[in-house]
Amino acid sequence: MSKWKYSFGVLLTTMLTTSVIAVKPVMTIDFDDGFDGRTEVGKVKATAVGNPKLVPGKFGKALESGPDTGYLEFPASGALNGKEGSVEMWIKRVGWKPDDNEFHVFFETLGGKGWLVLYKFCSGSRVFMLSGQSHAGPHNMGVYTTGYNHRDTYARHKSPQKWGDDWAHFVGTWSEDGNMVYMNGIPGKLFPRKEFYVKGRIEPGPVFRIGDEPWPVIPRTSSSLIDGVKIYDRALTPKEVAECYNKAVYNGKIPLSEKTVQINYSGDVAKKQLMVDVFTGSADPDENPTVVQGAIVPAKSQISDSDWRQFAYKSGSADGVLPLPSKAGKYDIAVRIKTQDKIFDMRREVEIPDFSWYGNKLGLEHKVLEPWTPLMVDGTAVKCWGREYSFGNSALPEQIISKGKELLASPVIIDAKINGTPVKWVTQNIKKISADEVAAEFMGELIGQAGNHKIKLQTKITIEYDGFMLIDIIADNPEVFSAFSLDIPVRLERALYHHRYSTLRSGVAGNVPAGQGVVDKSDFMPFTWLGDNDRGLFWCCETDQFWPNGENNNAFEEVRDGNTVSMRFNLLKSGQKFGKDWKYEFALQATPVKPLPKNWRKFRFTMWEKNHMRDWPGGNVGLFNWGANGIGSKFGYPESEDPPALKEQIKITQARNYKLLPYLNVSCQPTFCSEWPFFGDKWRMGYLDLDPVCIDRRQGYAAVSTNNKEYRDFVTWKLDQYRRAMDLDGEYHDNTFPYLSNRPETGCGYVRNGERRPSFTIFSTRALLRRNRAAMQAFKKDYFVFAHMSSKVWIPLLAYEDAMVDGEHFRGRIKDNYPELLPMDMFRAEYMGRQWGLIPVMLLELSPENTKKIEPTRGIVTMCMLCLLYTSPSP
After folding, report:
1. What is the pLDDT of residue 287?
2. How far apart are CA 300 and CA 302, in angstroms?
């Protein structure tokens, strides 16, 4: 992991009581003595491509570079660290504007499997720091938007600062935490941004290029001046970047001012404390403080002598603890810095949220929610709505029945070897530990023999009233295994289609491939499903931590053998070993998970715009987006911007028999929310949405960890407060799927071979959605929840929603013919509702010109009718 740790603030910082030590670059290219760079051991020879020029620069000489001049290439060995690093440079534009539709590539690695690039994008005024294990992606991209907004759809709101006509200081960083771009000492985001989790370090290649390359997509003739290039072998912290910028701008004489001093804070609700950090911006030693004090008072109020608390100061940073106010509201954190000859005062406004939610038990009642029926246990057979799980005397399921049809061709099988000898399972048994109408718990045992080796496995199985079955397998001596696979054999007639997770723009969905033997395979993925038009079996697992074979492309296999299609999970292959702490945890759930609502086909979904509904005959469910009409929620935060106006609109729609659903999200929260300084570091997963609307560009829409109990308590309570205050009839949940993270603060991830790898939050996200449904039903029995989840049907989570909307991932890909990208087998496997138990809704993503034509819409409607007409009666 990177050494960074973040707290919310004007800029983020980690170093509280230690000084900001001037970080040393591994290579410097200042152009004062020519093109060559230098390191501690000597010069690094530059190779000129084209005819780059030296001209007067920011500090001395600068590189003039562009397609009409040329570029410089340097050896990367010893300079670039693929795991983490930074590139710093000063850039002056020559003949172009930040929002011109052109690429400007300032730094790029060449010739390697991996890729590092600092560049200005061809659309809008965004500057990206990109990293990836391959040129094809996936890529992590830190972003900075510079304020030239009229062509930049990602900057409809306040940017950190404009990119003027003079020199600008840029730093791009990459690390396991994500990527960042800084301009003039200010980060484009308050946190590193991470879209994907690369497996291992990046291999950047033998060469990196410095210049202003256009890339061949869009030719141009403009150029840039580049000066003060520095390469670092780690990701600079925000303080270090600010120090680099300040020292250059102030020529080593950094003053105490509001431009250089930063006040940052975090909070601890349990201890009722605010932790405050003050960074002087590496002010000149002549202005080093003799005393630093802090106070917190109501906004704009006077400060008495008793309010001040002494802070500890050391070489550029001070930190202290202030009492957490008991009442919610707006406050000022005040800082007083005394030097030998002056007093510097500064305030930062903060908002203390309402913490009455802390530790609440809302929605945690032990009960069966509607529309499910109580669990029924008869010996080792368990019945829930529409399904049955039976074990006989087996430690794993013998048979699973859904909608009256058997799913399994034979019992679930463990195929294992010890020193190459197959294990023969001699005896096995299972017994009930506890059971009520909500859940049942069983313990099983398998005794096996392989030559002279005896092995014992234990299974712990919990089945809940919605048919979700969590299974743990534990071995008494797991290190002796030389091979280990789990086979779930599904009857051929039940295994027409498959649907599973993919990191691509759409999940894998469609017909099970034809043929015998292994017909499909994959490395570790968190879920897969086999089924027919009306039922199926869903498997999921949060992590490949106990799956040594997880990185190989045969970790999962679909195997057709006669009248069986098996899900085969190859956990261990020859040459691999389980550790002493090995425990394999996974879950199964037969589908559909619940009955479709009565008259579900009569639901008509429309949009709420300009304070009225679109005219749509029979419409009865209306959706409104964040910030809608100035009275919706701020980017999904469960709070209206204008509660009286929203409540009035809800009354109007209720009179028309509409359910009005606001845009909300349980998997993400905006970083501007007042709870973030107190919990953000534990909540933050790493992913940040590129387009936070109506807020400072440095903020983001952040994926949050549902593993965190405090987050579950907060969002359950906050949603309930919102629905009751507004008298809502339902909610629209965006991003209804679990995220993955490797941040230990989130309870996710593990270490393998020195690299921290990610894991998913499947089970905790499911628990949160179940808790939220309980709170909703306590408010209104007919409360309606509409979930967006394009391309990935995480059914154990979606079970607690009423409808699912799919198809957004086709945006920009569909022209006028849906079947080109969405064939009939894919539609049946993923987009129908009856095999899942949710109302299916599809987003139409035709290109703008084709939405006005009859034929493209008629084509997709015809396809939907053909798929949906072939149906059996709903139970």
Report:
1. 60
2. 7
State whether residue 337 is helix, strand or coil.
Answer: strand
Sign, CA torsion 828/832/833/834: negative
**Contact between residue 451 and residue 541 where contact means Cβ atoms under 8 Å apart:** no
Q: Which residue pairs from 777-784 have beta carbons closer than 8 angstroms and sit at least 24 positions apart in sequence?
A: 777/369, 777/370, 778/363, 779/720, 779/723, 779/724, 780/729, 781/370, 782/729, 783/723, 783/728, 783/729, 783/730, 783/731, 784/621, 784/659, 784/661, 784/729, 784/730, 784/731
Quick check: pTM over 0.85? yes
Dihedral sign (CA 730, 732, 737, 743): negative
Phi-psi map region of 834: left, alpha, beta (phi>0 left; psi -120 to 50 alpha): alpha
Task: Sort strands 413-418 and 759-760 into parallel, antiparallel or unpaired.
Answer: unpaired
Q: Determine the Cα angle at 30 with ends 70 and 60, to 5°.
A: 100
Q: Among candidates 148, 677, 591, which has minimal Cα distance to 403? A: 591
Q: Which amino acid is at 26?
A: V
- Is 150 in contact with 102 (CB distance < 8 Å)? no
Asked if the bond preceding 56 is cis, omega within 30° of 0, the reply is no
Tell me how far apart the alpha carbons of residues 631 and 841 are, in angstroms, rounded to a whole number: 26
At residue 616, the pLDDT reads 58
Q: Could you report the per-residue pLDDT of 411-420, keeping only the tens digit for each?
A: 999 999 999 9
Handedness of CA 610, 612, 617, 622 (dihedral sign): positive
pLDDT < 50 positions in the chain: 1-20, 150, 870-875
What does residue 496 show for φ and ψ, rounded to 5 degrees?
-80, -40
Q: Are 328 and 352 in contact (CB under 8 A)?
A: yes
